[in-house]
Amino acid sequence: MLDKEKVLAKCNALTKNTLMETLGIEYVDVAEEYLVARMKVDSGVHQPMGLLHGGASVALAESVGSTASYLFVDREKQEVRGIEIAANHLKSIREGYVYGTAKLIHKGRTIHLWEIKITDEQGNLISLCKLSNIVLDKKANGK
């Protein structure tokens, strides 16, 4: 059985001194079939017209999808890398929070495919993303 609080604490500890910390990405919910992170929409993630930057949305999507894959692998022997991401930005937002929910589409031995829906606080779809991750064996001595 999944210990939700322990998993979220571990996920949030991974963000220290990273882009996720810079963007204020925080993991807020997890279950066997999904992982959710949120990001505050303010001037720090705006594009010049005062709207959420598409790149910030993609960073949220890749962060939550990659971390979700990380939860499925043997972290002693394997690591995860994002290899492709696609995003469709469907609606704009100026303030509040957006939530990235990663749901697994395919879990192979070496490839994980995720759908990440980015929604606002009212559940409106802001962006729809697809992320492919590769699962690699760790090399001896970290090389």
Oligomer: single chain
Following the backbone from N to C, one meets helices and strands in this order, namely: HHEEHEEEE
Determine Rg (CA atoms, Å). Answer: 15 Å
Our estimate of the beta-strand percent is 35-45%
Q: Write down the overall geometry.
A: globular
| Helix percent band | 10-25%
Supply the key terms.
single chain; 143 residues; alpha+beta; six-stranded antiparallel β-sheet; 3 helices; 6 strands
Write the layout of secondary structure elements.
Elements: H1 4-13, H2 19-23, E1 26-31, E2 34-41, H3 54-72, E3 78-89, E4 96-107, E5 111-120, E6 125-137
Structure description:
The chain is α+β, with helices and mostly antiparallel strands and 143 residues long. 24% of the residues lie in helices and 43% in strands. It has three helices and six strands, in the order ααββαββββ. β4 and β5 form a beta hairpin.
